[in-house]
Write a structure and sequence with these properties.
By secondary structure, the protein is mostly helical. A two-stranded parallel ribbon has the order 1-2. Helix 1 packs across helix 2.
Length: 70
């Protein structure tokens, strides 16, 4: 039983909210692990299907962020 939405459902929600706010371009910040990359891919697909431009995206190194906690 999955209790959280799929990456695509989450991405589509973000895209639809962006469109409701009349945003034409949106940037993405994601982690460089499987979860972040999968989310970015789903977001790019949803954005493309809804004519939302994504001119920039930036990845965050999960290991570097973890090192900051120590």
């Amino acid at each position: 039983l999955r209790t959280i939405p799929t990456d695509f459902q989450l991405a589509l929600s973000i895209v639809q909210t962006s469109l409701l706010l009349r945003w034409n371009n949106i940037g993405a910040v994601f982690t460089n692990d499987l979860y972040g990359i999968g989310g970015r891919t789903a977001f790019n697909i949803a954005a493309s299907q809804n004519n939302l431009k994504t001119p920039c995206s930036e990845s965050i190194d999960v290991l570097a962020v973890g090192a900051l906690k120590d």
